[in-house]
Amino acid sequence: MTLQNLLGLVASTLSMLFIWPQVFRVYRNNTVEGLAPLGALQGMSGSILWAIYGLAQTDIPLFGSNLLLSVAIALLGIAMTRHGVLSRSVLSTAITVVVGVGFVAASVSTSLVGVLAFVIGALSVLPQTIKVLRDPDLNGVSVSSNSLLFVTACAWMSYGLTIGDTLVWLPNVLVIPCSALIVVKARASQQRSAHVPVHVA
Questions:
Q1: Which of 39, 54, 71, 194 satisfies CB 3.0 to 4.6 Å to 59 for a cystine?
Q2: Phi, psi at residue 56, to the nearest 5°?
Q3: High-pLDDT (> 70) share of the chain, %
Q4: Do residues 13 and 60 lie in contact, with contact meaning Cβ atoms separated by under 8 Å?
Q5: What is the rounded radius of gyration, in angstroms, for the C-alpha atoms of the chain?
Q6: pLDDT at position 65, please?
Q7: 36-61 tens-digit pLDDT
Q8: What is the mean pLDDT of residues 89-110?
Q9: Which distant-in-sequence residues (6+ apart) come within 8 Å of 37 by Cβ?
Q10: Buried/exposed code over 43-79 (b: 16+ C-beta within 10 A; e: otherwise)
Q11: In this structure, what DSSP letter does residue 162 have?
Q12: How far is it between the farthest Cα atoms of the chain?
């Protein structure tokens, strides 16, 4: 196995795993507190576009990992609709439009869908980053998921640099520091909540 194949395997495996602690936390604790709906929509859209880009490039690790990631983020979106912070129609429309635009863009140019995936995917971490800076209650945010996101971004950056694909490695220049910040803020918020005394009336 070449270094390129190994990095692709590691990055794609991490991409399929990192989001699930967040999904489990949301459904187990029945809370989306601290999560950014816009970030979920952008993350899902970016993942769908990356999956289409990977399919067009016959890059199976990129396609498979982002397909599963888009499903996981869609589950977060469904939880958000149940908690009333995201409209069902907005979620379903976003999925339909992004899939349609993605395949049309891919039929025109593989590079075009890659650029769309790059722009939307790279910026998808910003709404959540802004949310954790503004919201003191981050009980719905998974520290484990964002810690894994940090490692995943490092892996994709290494893979992208190895294969010489700027669209793969460049977004992680933003994702790496943002995911680290989210981990620090979420951990601090949850530690504060754990030490708040409960008063029984």
A1: 54
A2: -65, -30
A3: 97
A4: no
A5: 17
A6: 84
A7: 999 999 999 999 999 999 999 998 88
A8: 96
A9: 77, 80, 85, 86, 127
A10: bbbbbbbbbbbbbbbebebbbbbbbbbbbbbbbbbeb
A11: H
A12: 65
> pLDDT tens across 124-159, in order?
999 999 999 999 899 999 999 999 999 999 999 999
One-letter identity of residue 26: V
Residue 101 tokens read as 């635009």
Mean pLDDT computed over every residue of the chain: 92
What are the tokens at 115? 């650029």
Q: Which residue has the higher pLDDT, 56 or 198?
A: 56
Residue 109 exposure: Cα atoms within 13 Å on the Cβ side? 6
In this structure, the dihedral spanned by the alpha carbons of residues 134, 146, 188 and 26, taken in order and rounded to 10 degrees, is 80
172 CB-side CA count, 13 A: 20
